[in-house]
Structure formats: C-alpha cells, structure tokens
Amino acid sequence: MKPLSLALFALVIVGCSQEQPHNELLSRAAQIVFTQPDSVVRMLSPYYYDSAMTDADRALYGLLYTEALHRSGLSTASDSLIRASRDFYERHGDDEHLSRALLHHGIILYRQQQVHEAVLSMKRAELLSGDLDLPAFKWYLYCVLGDVNDNVGNHALTLRYYKQALKAARQCDSRQWTVQTLNNIAMTFDMLGQKDSLRYYTEQAQPYYEDTYGDVRATYLANCASYMLSTGQRQEAKRCLIESRLISPTNRGEKLLADIYMAEGDTAAAIQQWYRLSGSLSPDVAIQSYRQLITYMNCQGDLRGVAEFSQRLNEVYHRLYEHSDAAVIDLQAQFDEQIKERRQYRTVIVLLAAILLVIVLSALVIWYNRRRMDLLNARFAESQMQYNLTRTELTQMRRMKEREQRENSRQLKDIVSRLHAAAGKGKPAPDDEMNALAQLSYAMRPKLRELLSPLSSKEQQVCLLTVHHFLPSEIANLTIATPQAITNTRVRLLRKLFGETGGAKDFDTAIMEYGADDVI
C-alpha cells in the first residue's frame, strides 16, 4: 500500500505543477499583450473552453484573447466572448478595461458590417480613454479609428487620428509603431495627391526604417517608390517595390509595380497584375485596377470585356455605398457634437455651482458682518453707556471735591484767622487748631504731606504757617520760639527739603509754590 500511495501522490504533484493558476496566467498575458500579441494568443488558446474561471477571470480572458487576436492581424467571427467582457466591465464601472473591450467589440461589429454599432462602440472607447495613461492602447485605438475614416474617405478625420496615434507611438518609444503610423499618414497624403507631405512623412520614418520588419517595412518602401515615381525616378522606384515584394507583398506596392510595367511597355505583366489586384480588399486598389483594365480593353476593342469589368466596378461602388460612408461620417460628427455639448453642459453646471457657492458665501459673509456690526454696535452702546455713567460719576466726584475744597477753604480761612488773632495776642497755637490746619492743608495740597512727612512736628508747623503767609514773628509766638530761631529754621529747611542754599525768603517762596497746582 505504501508504494501505491507514494505513486498517487507523485502523480498529483506533477499534475499540479503543470497547471498554472488562471490569475497568474492572465497577469503575464496582460503584461505582454501590447508588445507580444502572438505569444498571448498561444498562451490563452488552450483555455478557451475552460469553465473553471471566475467571472472576473473570464472577462479578462475574453478581453486579452480578443485583443491579442486583433493585434496579431487575426480575427474572430463571434463576438460572444468580448461582449461578455464588455458587459462585465460595464457593470463594474472599470473604465480602463471597458474602453479596451469597447474597441475590440467595435472591430468585430465592423467586420460583421454592423457599422453603426461598431462606430458608436469605438467612439465610446475613445471617450473613456481620454483620461487614461495608456499610450500603447491609445495608439491602436487611434489607428483603428483612422482606418475606419480612411475607408469612408473622411481624410481630415483620418489624418487627425493618425497624428494622435503617432504621438502615442512616440510616447511608447516604439519604432515599429512610429514607422507604421508615419506610413499611414504618408499614404493618406499620397491618396490626396499631396506629394510634398508624402515626402515629409516618409523622411520622418527614414531614421527608424532599419528597425522595422514585415508589412511596416514593405509599406515604407512602397511610399518611397510612390514619391520616386512622382519625380520620374522610375528605376529607383522599381527597385524599392521589388524589395518590398520580397519582404511582404502589398496591394498598393503591386499596383505601383503594375503601373511601372505599363510605362515600360510590358503590357502583359501589367495586365496580369491588374487582374489579380481587381479582387483586392482595398477599394482604392480595386477601383484603380478595374479602371486600368477597362481602359486597356477599350483600346483593344474588347467591348464585352469592357462591359463585364464595368459591371464589376459598379459592384465595388455599390459595396462602398452599402457601407453608408456619409452615415459613418455623420455619426461620428454627431457623437463628437454630443460630447462637446455634454462637456459644455457640465462646464455650465460647474460655473452655476461656482456662482451659487459664491452667492452663498457672500450671503454668509454679509450675515457674519452684519452680526459682527450688531455686536460691535451693542458693545459700543454698552461702552457709551458705561462712559456716560463714568462721566456722571466723575462729574459728581469733581463737584463733591469742589464742595469739599470750598468747605476746606472756608474752614482753613477760619483757622488761619483764629491763629492770626492768637499770634497777635502773643499766645501759642492750640494743638487742635494746628492739627486742623495740617489736615486741611494736606487735603488741599497732597504733595505737601509727602514733602513734610520726614520733618518733626515743630518743623511741619513752621512750614505750614509759612505756606499760609504768617510772619516770622507770628510763627515765633505760635510755636513758642524766637524770631531768629524761626529764621534759622527756615534757612535750614530750605537746604533739607529742597537741597538749596539761600535765605529765609527763598525758603518761603519755595514752600509756598510747592504743591500750589494741586489747589482747585
């Protein structure tokens, strides 16, 4: 039993090692789908009928597989796979993958002759890809839209898309894509008969020519040959066309070669080329080949052949008419106009919203300023009221002080009068009278209190009596001192209080002026 278990375990391990998880496979495919589409087709083909995938994996598989087919130059008749991818990304709002799915679904619809739906799908892809940073995808998108417009003869739009593709190719730094897009632009100008532009864009491709291969290289040589033919360089053009044929035969190159054969007189070779090219999928090549054949048969008098090939030419024109070229051009114009109107509408909405926001902000600012003004007015009114109250109180205090000063002055006059009377009688001043004199004097002259505070009681009395214009003899009587002692005291107080030297009169003047400005 043990060997059998080991064998089964080994088989399981081997089987698991050969099967890759879907997400890993799809991740690798997504990384190289733009640059190596052939490899992606080979990687994904074995899983076409795999039913074990999740919806998300199946959607990505359908997108990558279809994208790789188209980029490899292959096609599929059924759109069920890419339609499922498109529906999935539509539901999930994935603009990047949805735009890619829309493009490749549009390509299939275009090949199914559902031109209206195809063009709308491609235009939606263009609209969604506008803000995406996917230059590799945009290059292919613009190339396809350029080809679609080229098929209906809308050359202005063809050139616009090809030039957008050229910009994207240069962003990708892909020489193959750059030359391919320059080839497309050059061919469009060649079809319009603008040989100078054909030359310009062909010369733009020349630095990258050596790095190209396949159809791109062959088409570049055909463009060179077309310009050479327009300047009469037939042999050089023929060499380019033969080299182009060896690389990858193209209908346009074969048609130019047939024209050279006819110019060289090799009618048989030219007719053989035109017969073969009359079945070309390129309407321009087929129409020109039919015209050349009809002209040749008309010259040969082959009226039956002229009629047959004229009928075939009419069928080509009829098929072109069935493509509804004008309808395709109008459809794109209408789509672009609708997008333009939608963007203008959004711009108007944004502007209106901005205006509304400005109005609301302005209203808020006005409301705030008004409220602030009301608050400031209320504060001002309160301050004014407080000012008025303070002013009233100050007025009352001033009046009270004035009354107090008047009362003090009256009392002071009475005291001074009584003291003069006492001095005249040679009596000393009563203590209560001197105290009252000091209080009233200090009340009227507050600075005087501060000045006399360091002095003795007797010295203060001398000073106060001097302030009130008492004579030295009167001061001597009131303080029980001699006039000379009073004079000496006054001289000494001049130096002590004012730091000055002088006589008694100088002291009298200084003490009388000190604090006089405080008296109301």
Q: What would you say this structure looks like, in words?
A:
With 520 residues, this protein is mainly α. It has helices at residues 2-18, 22-32, 37-44, 55-71, 80-92, 95-111, 115-128, 135-151, 155-172, 175-191, 195-205, 214-230, 234-247, 251-263, 267-277, 283-300, 303-322, 325-424, 431-444, 446-452, 457-467, 472-479, 483-498, 504-513. The longest helix is centred in the C-terminal third of the chain and has 100 residues, at 325-424.
Using the coordinates shown, work out and report the CATH topology of one domain: Serine Threonine Protein Phosphatase 5, Tetratricopeptide repeat
Shape: rod-shaped
Q: Please provide the count of β strands.
A: 0
Question: SSE order, as H and E?
Answer: HHHHHHHHHHHHHHHHHHHHHHHH
- Secondary structure: helix percent: over 70%
Give the N-terminus to C-terminus distance in angstroms: 131 Å
The CATH architecture of one domain can be named as Alpha Horseshoe
A few lines on this structure:
The chain has 520 residues and is an all-alpha fold. The protein has helices at residues 2-18, 22-32, 37-44, 55-71, 80-92, 95-111, 115-128, 135-151, 155-172, 175-191, 195-205, 214-230, 234-247, 251-263, 267-277, 283-300, 303-322, 325-424, 431-444, 446-452, 457-467, 472-479, 483-498, 504-513.
Give the helices and strands, then pairings:
Blueprint: H1 2-18, H2 22-32, H3 37-44, H4 55-71, H5 80-92, H6 95-111, H7 115-128, H8 135-151, H9 155-172, H10 175-191, H11 195-205, H12 214-230, H13 234-247, H14 251-263, H15 267-277, H16 283-300, H17 303-322, H18 325-424, H19 431-444, H20 446-452, H21 457-467, H22 472-479, H23 483-498, H24 504-513
